[in-house]
Amino acid sequence: MKAIDIMLKQAQTLSPEMSVKEALDIFFKIKRTGLLVVDSSGKIAGTFTEKDILKQILPAYISNVGGFVYQDNPKGIKNKVADFVNLKVRDVMFKDVVTVDEGATISEVARIMITKNIRQLPVIDKSGKFLGVIGRHKVVSMLVESEA
């Protein structure tokens, strides 16, 4: 079985030119942990995830201090959120997206997901155009069903 056979073809995507406010509206409406960002030519430009949102809102030092807990500063966070929602998705998205070719086998998809710690893997055609997405749940179910 190939990636193109098991991918979800109707995946919700965002535009890099969309405001973060618009993206958040979609994000919360469909209750996802992340969405792909696809440009006007149909190619993947990045991802917009919960992690990207938290990185923008929390203090910059948070990744360096790890387990230390500092007192919340609601006013500071509120100001960061106000600035954040006015940005464009292209300004905050993660750009180094791992993809898989439409002809990849389910085993190759699983290998990439495991080695790259990825929950969803975008599927692209030979020209790099976005075709769909495969989630870990689908890969697991396909592997288990093939053995049953």
Keywords:
single chain; 8 helices; alpha/beta; 148 residues; CBS-domain
Describe it for me?
With 148 residues, this protein is an alpha/beta fold. It has helices spanning 3-6, 20-30, 50-57, 62-65, 74-84, 89-92, 106-116, 136-147, and strands at residues 13-14, 34-38, 44-49, 100-101, 120-124, 130-135. The chain has a three-stranded mixed beta sheet. The protein has a three-stranded mixed beta sheet with strand order 4-5-6. A hairpin with a 5-residue loop joins strand 5 (120-124) and strand 6 (130-135). Helix 7 packs across helix 8 (136-147). The protein is elongated and about 55 Å long. The model has no long low-confidence stretch (mean pLDDT 86).
Mean pLDDT: 86
Widest sheet, order of strands = 1-2-3
State the share of residues found in helices, binned by percent.
40-55%
> Structural class from helices and strands?
alpha/beta
Give the biggest sheet: 3 strands, mixed
Count of individual helical segments:
8
Please identify the top-level CATH class: Alpha Beta
Terminal Cα span:
16 Å
- Examine the secondary-structure arrangement and name the CATH architecture: Roll
CATH superfamily: CBS-domain
Could you state the order of secondary-structure elements as H and E? HEHEEHHHHEHEEH
| Poorly predicted tracts of residues | none
Query: Rounded to an integer, what's the Rg over CA atoms?
Result: 17 Å
* Number of β-strand runs: 6
Q: List the domain count as a whole number.
A: 1
Beta-strand residue fraction: 15-25%
Chain oligomer state: single chain
Shape type: elongated
Q: What is the CATH topology classification name?
A: CBS-domain
